[in-house]
Prior knowledge:
This protein has helices at 14-20, 22-25, 40-50, 61-66, 83-92, 107-120, 134-145, 162-169, 177-180, 184-187, 190-199, 230-233, 244-249, 255-258, 270-278, 380-392, 404-423, and strands at residues 5-10, 30-36, 57-58, 73-76, 96-99, 124-126, 151-161, 205-213, 298-305, 310-319, 323-330, 333-338, 343-349, 357-363, 371-372, 375-376, 427-428. By secondary structure, it is α/β, with parallel strands linked by helices. The strands form 3 sheets. The protein has a 9-stranded mixed beta sheet. A 6-stranded parallel beta sheet has the order 3-2-1-4-5-6, with helices on both faces. The protein has a two-stranded antiparallel ribbon with strand order 15-16.
Amino acid sequence: MEKKIQVVLVGAGNRANVYASVSLEYPEKMQVVGIVDPDPVRRELMRERYEVSKENCFESVDAFVKREKFADAVINGTMDHLHVETSIPVLEKGYDLLLEKPFAVNEEEMNRLTEVAKKCGSKVVIGHVLRYTDFYRAIKDRILSGEIGKLISIETCEHVNYHHMAVSYVRGKWRSEKLCFAPMLLAKSCHDMDIMLWMMKETEPMAVASFGADFQFGPHRKPDGAGTRCMRDCPFVDECIFSAKTNYLATERWLQYVWKPLEGYGELTREMKENSLRTDNPYGKCVWDFERDGNVDHQTVIVNFANGATGSFSMIGGSAKSERNIHIVGTRGEIKGTFEDSRYVVRRMAPSTEAGYVEEVYDLGAKGDTIGAKGGHGGGDEMLVLDFLDYLNGNPPSVSCATLEDSAISHKIVFKAEKARKSGSIEKLS
């Protein structure tokens, strides 16, 4: 019989809550038995949600690891720049670890965590949830079957819609490396870089080039006459596509971010929300008034692989619709699809046909964006956690499992890409 895995949440934010919620759906598989977070409000909310005893709630990792080991694993959902410093003590204490991506914000941290994990012998899985979606797993299986031959090229792109761009990467905590210590390519798109490397796993990346810039934001692009806060002094409050009024009051978008300053106040009235946006809520500030510390709103990465294949990835912030696309060309065929449509096409060479090819369309159902009908990230959040639990129960890592060693490769690509973008160089990986 499989063992029920007991976990401690380090970081009581949104991502840890998403992963921990699997314990409510599958109580026979997982139980949350501890909470670590410096915020007393968040700590208490999560303690009540998962019925954790007060003696197993801690303000810091230091306080947590002073206790004897009382669980099997830790789910680490802290901010990106805290991942390594909060993970090393729990690994040294003997816990296995599910760690949110990106697991490190620079190459030095990446190497340090990898060394500690290897020394401790812990099982470490990184939260690359897209690997677990029906869409990407189906494409991976097609590649493994060999039906499109050897891979020549892979092109991927992620379109980040305008309101997601604004809430997370302009107004939000990921707008600047001074705040989150990670560039947008790492904070947003290490998922996508991981997908590229996962699909191309038969070979190794050798060199990287990258280009990108901030095209839309910054004080010098602010419209003449615009105010400082949407709800207080801006004449464009009803027409601006980034307006806090239309994006956060008239809709239900991004509740977990926008109303965090009011957390703990109980049921929120419209008056409370309006007052918050008019005064000190950062999401009520003009989108052009934020310091973004040289961060980009669009970027393209080009990768050269050891076997001669090439890959490219483009992150484009500011589209009307969020969308991830993929196009893989092999020596005997190609695969092309859109994640949000949960649909892809396989084309195979067929010289005897008029078109020169035959194609089959695969519709996997469950259409929608990344919070679709199957839950977070197209069902990937839940499947990642369930796979992690299986791994801890002694089963071998699945095809989708992103171990620390796997993830280190795509992280290194990101670090080299950022160096290439800033210097205009081509960066070698060896």
